[in-house]
Every structure is written in C-alpha cells, then in structure tokens.
Amino acid sequence: MRFLILLDAMRTALAGCCRDSPMLQVVWEPVVVHTMDYLMAAARLDSAATQHRLFADVSVVQSASQLISSLVRAADASTQLALVDQLTATVRNTDGFAPFAASSPPRETQIVLLLAAVIPGVHSSAISYDTFSLLEVCLDMAVAATHEASSTANCVLSAALLNKFDDEAALAVAIRDTEYSVRVGLREIRTIPSAITLLAWATRALVLRGFPTCLDLSVKLIEQFADEEVGNMAAAAFCLLLNDELCQNLTQDGGARVKFLYKQKFFVQIRPQLVDGFKQASDGSVKDRFLTALSHLLFSVPEQVLLSEIPPLLPLVIQCLSSSSPQLLTSSLQAIMALLSGAPNLLSSYTSDLIPQLLALGRHTGNMKVRQTALKCLGSLTGLPHHLLYPHKNDVIQALVPCLDDHKRLVRREAVECRSQWFLLGAAPS
C-alpha cells in the first residue's frame, strides 16, 4: 500500500514538472527505463526478478504503468517512437514469454497494462506498423483472457490503436476484425462480459475521432438490450462512450485523437435510436435498459447540449426517477439539477410529479449520493414560481424531518439546507 502511494505521488509530482522541461531527461532513465525493466523482469520471473517480485502485483503494474505513461506523454515524438518500438519488440519475443496467450499466467498477461497505459498517450506518428499489427492478438486476448485486468487492458489497447489509425482503409479492416471478435465473444457465456467491454471501448475510440462507424457499433450495443443475459451489461457499457473520468486512458488530455464537438454530434445522432427503442419496447426491463443508456449519455454531455436537447426527453428523465438503479437515479437527478440551474422553467409543469419522487429519493436506503442529490434538487426547486410550490410547502417541510436524522453527515447537511429553503418559501426578502 505504501509503495502504491509512493508511485501515485511520483506520478503527480513528475508529470507537472517534466512537461516541456529539461527535467524529463534527468528522470527518464531512472524512472521510465528502470521501472519498465522491473515490470518486464517480474513478468518473466527472470533470475534478476527475485528482488523485484513486488512489480508482479497487478495494482503495482497498474500504478507503475500510469507513472511511465505520464512521462511518456511529455516526451517528443522520436523518444515516444523508440520506447513504443522497444515495448512492441519485447512483448512479441516469444522466447518463453507469451503475454498474448490466454493460457499464460496473469503475471505475464498483465504486462499489457503497461502498453494500454503508454500507447494511448503517444502521437500517432510514434506508432509503427509493428505496433499496429498487435491489434489482431489484442482483439483475441480481449475476449479470451481469463484474467479480468488483462482482458480489460487488451480492450483499452485495441481501442487506442483503432483511435490512432491514419489509414482509413486499414481502419475499416480493423473495425471488421473487431466486430468479428465481438461476435465470437458473444457466443459463450464466459466471454460475454469481455465482448461487451471490447465493443464499448472500440465504440468510444471511434466516437472520439468522429468516425461514422461509431454509430454502427453503438447500434450493436443497443441490439443486445433485448437479451436477458447480455442486456444489462450492454446498457451499463454506455457509461464508457462519453465519460472521460471513467476512461482516462483514452481522452483528449491523455493523447487520443479527438474530433471537435464529438460529444454533441454523437449524442444528437444516437438519441433518436434510444428514444424510439424505448417507445417500441414492450418489456419493462428492456425499457429500463434504454433509460440507463440514455442517462449515461446525459450525464456526460456538456451542459449547453443538455439544456438544448433535453426538453423532449424530460418525461423519460422523470420516469427514470422510479428506477431502482442508483446509477440511473444519480444520472437523472444530475440532469434535473442542470435544468434547474440553466432552464428551470422547463420543469414548471412537472412540479407535482417531481416533489413526491424527490422526497422518496431523499430517504433512499441504498445509496448516499442518491439521497444527497435528491435533496439538493428538492431545495433548488424553490427557485420555481411561488404559486406552483406553495401548496406543497407544509408537506415537504414535514416529510424532510426523517432526513435530518440520516446516518450520513453530508445527507443531514443537505436536508437542513433544503428544509431551510422551503421554510423561507414565500417569506418577504430581508
């Protein structure tokens, strides 16, 4: 644990001081080169690795890889190219070392976490043909690997390579290979989660660069909603498509190829598919999956897009408040919060529905964030016209009493603030 804290502290300190600085040359060998050597030695379990067994722990591999990645992003293209070529040559060396074989032990396969951290952050000119040719084995391992961290790393690495292709003809071939790997993965129960994860990461890679096929891949995710085994995973996977916090390995800041206004364009294009699918679905659980996917996208789009696109979606967003999914509830509440701060009048006709739902969510037993956000929304409602709220004033003040005894301090604080706002409703300004 202390070693992980040290690695994270080093990453924070060095990433800031090394960008465009001679300091990068000073720390390159002792930090980047030596740490890579330790990781490789631990993966191979060479005789020299006995003193570096700590680097075989998956958490350490992940933290050390992020440390190396933060410094590689600050390097020039020629330095990046040399490092990536070295990594590619190392993992391709099959002399008793097979990180892209599903039968290999996790200490070998998890070294792909290093590539998945480094390659997304380098310029596309720093990726040679040999490195791009890793995509085929990455796609196979993304689905076949039994070690979860290794499988996810191969998904991320595959997405990074898809995002950085310069040759669109080669990219089209790579997309077909990706679709084939997904189809293979969906055939077996064991590999279904990996196949969905691969499909989501590949879709994100193409969404970022604004490649038209991203819509085809996202529709493939939507097609899984009707499947009882796969539907919930496919809907949850929509959280990866636009959310930068969940996908820090593949973001604009992280070095990915990004097209201007990609979030806005993708949301506008995919929204009709989700809304129409919701309306046409007859099964309640399938409807919930469409709402889940939509809420993930609403949570991630810029606020100005949310305000312009959400009016026709408001009935669906409010319907989401009846869900039992904390993630869906939180996304919907945050969408409502954005409306209350940017266009509160849009909610005027929904106050009678919103108030009892928000009060109920303020006592939600399963998730503190749901309770906290619901109470914040309820307090913000007091900015709506007085005549809409005053009939509910006494009921709300009374219903908030149990929230004042919530076992979480942050919820109690929000309840006090909310109740004060409702007490002052209609009071003369001081």
Q: Which helices and strands occur, and which strands form pairs?
A:
Layout: H1 2-18, H2 23-44, H3 58-72, H4 77-92, H5 106-109, H6 112-118, H7 129-132, H8 135-144, H9 148-164, H10 168-185, H11 192-208, H12 213-223, H13 231-236, H14 239-242, H15 262-280, H16 284-300, H17 303-309, H18 314-320, H19 326-342, H20 351-361, H21 368-380, H22 386-389, H23 393-399, H24 409-423
What are the segments in which pLDDT stays under 50 over at least 5 consecutive residues? none
SSE succession: HHHHHHHHHHHHHHHHHHHHHHHH
N-end to C-end Cα span: 54 Å
Rough outline: globular
Overall mean pLDDT stands at 87
Helix-strand category: mainly alpha
Summary keywords:
430 residues, 66% helix
Description of the structure:
The chain is mainly α. Helices cover 66% and strands 0% of the residues. It has 24 helices and no strands. Helix 16 packs across helix 19. The longest helix is centred in the N-terminal third of the chain and has 22 residues, at 23-44. The chain starts with a helix and ends in a 7-residue tail after the last helix.
